[in-house]
What we know:
Blueprint: H1 2-20, H2 29-52, H3 59-72, E1 79-81, H4 83-92, E2 96-99, E3 102-107, E4 110-116, H5 121-125, E5 132-136, E6 139-140, H6 146-153, E7 160-166, E8 174-179, E9 181-184, E10 188-195, E11 198-203, H7 210-223, E12 228-232, H8 241-249, E13 257-263, E14 270-273, E15 285-290, H9 297-307, E16 312-315, E17 323-329, E18 335-344, E19 360-361, H10 366-377, H11 388-402
Parallel strand pairs: 11-12, 12-15, 15-16, 16-19
Antiparallel strand pairs: 1-18, 2-9, 3-4, 4-5, 5-6, 5-7, 7-8, 10-11, 13-14, 13-18, 17-18
Helix pairs in contact: 1-2, 8-9
Amino acid sequence: MKPIKYVLGFLLFFSLIFFIGDNPRGNTLAEKEEIYPHLELLAEVMATIQQRYVKEVEAKKLIDSALEGMVSSLDPYSQFMTPDVKKEFDVDTKGELEGVGMVITLQDNVITVISPIEDTPAFRAGIESGDKILEINGESAKGLSTWEAVKKLRGAPGTKVTIKIWREGEEDLLPFELARETIHIKSVKDVNIISEGIGYVRITAFREDTIKGLEEAITKLLKDGATSVILDLRNNPGGFLDSSIQVSDLFLPKGELIVYVKGRNGEDERKFYAQKEPLLPMNDAIVVLVNEGSASASEIVAGALKDSKRATIIGTKTFGKGCVQSIIDLDEEYALRLTTAYYYIPEGICIEGKGIAPDIQVEISKGEKKQIREFLAGYKKEDIEKDPQLKRAVEYLIEKKKNG
Length: 404
């Protein structure tokens, strides 16, 4: 009787949602008649598994799995979060975790690297944005959700994980053995005068402490004589929306539109404007460096500064992650991470699937990618020649200063 009780309870739960739940559009009679047989089918499948599957399966586990599958079918980012998953998510937002150091997503049903995190095993090994993970520890990654892949990649510091990736332009799969470690994310790095009057600062991720670090960095650069700034957002996979808005606010005039988010049928629409006068004087030029590993919050900053004509964007087209996930708490420590809106940069372009095109395109070769990675890992301003995109940014600012 216990399995049937759980199944009937599950069916009742869905019936409440579809038939008497808070649905602003309402369900027509035809829709209800179409939905109910599928709910019956779901209950029948669950009851059959409970009664006839070769091993005993807890009804709770079946229901959790059904919910996980339902939510993950929506898009690569939405997720039904069990208490264990919710706990891991909370750890992620603190800026420290144990693993190999890469941000991944599901793209075309394949686990895809958005960007490796700097100063991590993945970054040092040469993992790149766009790499497709096909195997983890000798097992196919096909069919894995993002969360399932994350669980396999994470682990205790010192343990190892092997992966095989497909990379565009390579004939064979590339094998990597990565030793896990505790990942410490320092979001603001390499603050320096990189050439006469040209300041440089890099943001590796948008965290809670990013704005404090960046304010200190810009203040230092101005004190050291900077009259223009290069803001490096390459391989920055994003982070908090609030952080990206605060960073944009440092450079834009008060009242300037930074970004807006819009949900279904215009719901959840919010517009965000600069709230204070810019820390960097408006006559000081800005270059923002981006690449295919710049995503989400990075794209918000790049889009805001580009559309307002406040900065020149140099590099390659960004990743194109422009959807907003809301964390909705449910009963018993469960939660729902649900895509509820899309980001739109000031000119009205949705970032999702499109990315930000640079004003000055600077493509790089496979060999130059390695040089840039080495440059970023062991930053020295005298090594600018190893980084064609940064070199082009410096040349642009010098030329702009000469031309007034």
